[in-house]
């Protein structure tokens, strides 16, 4: 009896899939494009990554891990410097992955580089005398601030202004000049010499560190 034997698709490793995906431009990243690069059917690729969402998640974690792989935290064990450097590295890693990224894909990831950084930060916080729960909360807060900053960076205008601020200012132009005085005063005094996302990021990190110092 002739015909194709049914059963397990051709064996493909995670590294092979990632290597193939790296050869495909982000805008062209599809199941078919990766399958063609591997020389297998799209059905075979489905067996290992499920669907395009699974492929994107795999590629995203790989990119994020590579971005964080070269990060070196301060060696002097000053928990303030270490926590700040971690937050900056986490934020920059998210930004480098791409402005169009759904950052929720990175929640709870087990990328080795991210785990190594987290372990180093927690170790420094514990050595500084913080209780385990406080150290955990501090790391989570720093991570949340970094994710928020990455979102804000993606939401900035070409001039560095957050789109929400720009939209609010535009909306006020259509309102009577004597309305919303507090909002107008805050917007008019906003400093323009730095980008909104960077300034907000530093402000939130300063608050976190000041709170932990207390």
Explain this structure.
One of its GO terms (biological process) is negative regulation of DNA-templated transcription. With 214 residues, this protein is mostly helical. It has 2 domains: 1-50, Arc Repressor Mutant, subunit A (Orthogonal Bundle); 69-213, Tetracycline Repressor, domain 2 (Orthogonal Bundle). The chain has 10 helices and no strands. The protein has helices at 14-22, 31-38, 42-49, 52-69, 79-97, 112-127, 132-154, 163-172, 181-189, 196-213. α2 (31-38) packs across α3 and α6 packs across α7 (132-154). The radius of gyration is 23 Å and the shape is flat.
Could you provide a short overview of the structure?
With 214 residues, the chain is an all-alpha fold.
């Amino acid at each position: 009896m002739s015909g194709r034997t049914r059963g397990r698709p051709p064996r493909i490793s995670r590294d092979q899939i990632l290597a193939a995906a790296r050869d495909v431009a982000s805008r062209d990243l599809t199941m078919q494009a990766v399958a063609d690069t591997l020389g297998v059917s799209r059905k075979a690729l489905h067996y290992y990554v499920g669907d395009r969402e699974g492929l994107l998640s795999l590629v995203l974690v790989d990119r994020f891990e590579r971005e964080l792989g070269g990060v070196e935290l301060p060696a002097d064990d000053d928990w303030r410097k270490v926590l700040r450097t971690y937050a900056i590295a986490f934020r920059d890693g998210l930004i480098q992955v791409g402005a169009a990224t759904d950052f929720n894909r990175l929640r709870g990831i087990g990328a080795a580089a991210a785990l190594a950084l987290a372990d180093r930060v927690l170790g420094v916080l514990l050595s500084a005398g913080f209780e385990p729960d406080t150290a955990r909360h501090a790391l989570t807060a720093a991570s949340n601030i970094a994710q928020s900053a990455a979102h804000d960076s993606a939401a900035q205008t070409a001039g560095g202004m957050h789109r929400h601020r720009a939209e609010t200012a535009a909306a006020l132009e259509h309102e009577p000049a004597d309305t919303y005085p507090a909002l107008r005063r805050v917007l008019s005094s906003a400093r323009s010499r730095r980008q909104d996302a960077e300034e907000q990021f530093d402000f939130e990190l300063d608050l976190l560190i000041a709170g932990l110092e207390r």
